[in-house]
Specification:
Bound molecules: adenosine-5'-diphosphate, magnesium ion
Order of helices and strands: HEEEHEEHEHHHEHEHEEHEEEHEHH
Strand content: 25-35%
Largest sheet: 6 strands, mixed
Number of helices: 12
Distance between the termini: 54 Å
Shape: elongated
Number of strands: 14
Oligomer: single chain
Length: 345
């Protein structure tokens, strides 16, 4: 939990204009965030051994993107976010936010980013208005430049502006966290697993808000372990697993690579080898009479496979299909394209 004192420690001590279009003549950077060869090793202690949490990570997030960092628990997502936020020290590599290197220009870099951490940490005895004013003060935003009412309205918290934070619902608290991250008008907003453990309705609400902020020009980086969330919301996705980025592409291109399903057929006949007519589908013989097909939903529909089975004079006794889940995707991507494309023997 970051206390106010801890937050103050990494705040810029005077205001820096960083909002979209508020760069005093400086052209905006092509990349809102740029990370090169980033490495993080958590030193082992008496209880835990050393942990290589990020390994040679390269990432370029275009200005204006709604970018998803997708990976399972423990992949290194929060570590990456926290390095950008100045909360965790990197072991090696470089990172720049809105053109400012986090080592060379730490103040500018921190002023350019607003972070919504994974854990909800809201002081229960302040009202949303007070919390936003306090946060603006920490960032050195002068009173006449504060946009507290506007931010409260954007996140539909206006009617709760004077309520104690402890009386807010879970959804309102999440939105208040986003509001807090926006007080200094950062061009880059980072959300660490904004919808983990959140119900469907609230998830939809948050997505709507994030989309709206992005449409207004804020570059958004969010982490998630839900493939569906990255798919729905993000225009670009980087997949991270065991500290390595194993894919980074537009959502469309990535999904094309991933539109993969598995079909298992149990045949009435205990055939001991793959029938010739089925060869082109490259099934695996799991056991006599038991065939596993991998296919692309967009390319070879199930009925083509079933037709070929029937044409071979075989009878299907039972069948099951499985969506590719995140774990399979990681395996596929890690295995490498050349191997995945090589015909099975
Ligand atoms: N403060 C820490 N000290 C030691 N190891 C840590 C610390 N924080 C995270 N880790 C480890 O680093 C790896 C990445 O963690 P994290 O960045 O939190 O992943 P994610 O956010 O993707 O779930 C995990 O193996 C985790 O146990
Ligand atoms: Mg995390």
């Amino acid at each position: 939990m970051a206390s106010l004192a801890a937050e103050r420690a990494f705040m810029p001590d005077s205001p820096i204009q960083t909002g979209p279009g508020a760069d005093g003549g400086m052209p905006p950077p092509d990349h809102a965030v740029e990370v090169r060869g980033l490495d993080k090793i958590y030193r082992g202690g008496r209880r835990n051994k050393a942990n290589h949490a990020l390994i040679d990570v390269d990432l370029a997030i275009p200005r204006g993107a709604l970018f998803g960092l997708l990976g399972p628990n423990g992949a290194g997502k929060s570590t990456l976010i926290n390095i950008l936020a100045g909360l965790v020290n990197k072991t090696g590599g470089r990172a720049a936010i809105w053109g400012s290197d986090i080592d060379e220009n730490p103040r500018q870099a921190r002023a350019a980013i607003g972070v919504v951490p994974q854990e909800l940490n809201i002081d229960p005895f302040f009202t949303p208005r007070e919390l936003l004013e306090l946060q603006a003060g920490l960032y050195g935003v002068p009173p006449r430049e504060r946009r507290t009412d506007r931010i409260l309205a954007d996140l539909r918290l206006s009617d709760k502006a004077e309520a104690y934070a402890r009386t807010l619902s879970g959804g309102m608290r999440r939105r208040l966290m986003v509001a807090k991250a926006m007080v200094h008008d950062p061009p880059v907003l980072v959300l660490d697993e904004p919808t983990a453990g959140v119900d469907i309705e609230l998830r939809q609400q948050l997505w709507t808000h994030v989309r709206a902020l992005n449409r207004r020009g804020t570059t958004v980086l969010l982490t998630t372990h839900y493939l569906e969330e990255a798919e729905e919301l993000c225009d670009r996705i980087a997949i991270i697993n065991h500290g390595r980025v194993i894919a980074c592409d537009t959502t469309e291109a990535l999904l094309r690579r991933l539109d993969n399903k598995a079909l298992t057929l149990v045949l009435a006949e205990a055939v001991g080898e793959v029938p010739e007519r089925l060869g082109r589908f490259q099934p695996e013989l799991l056991a006599p009479g038991r065939l596993l097909f991998h296919y692309r939903t967009s390319e070879s529909p199930v009925n083509e496979i079933l037709g070929a089975v029937a044409a071979s004079g075989l009878t299907v006794q039972d069948m099951s299909t499985e969506e590719t889940d995140l774990e399979d995707i990681f395996l596929q991507l890690t295995r490498g394209a050349h191997e995945a494309e090589a015909p099975k023997g």
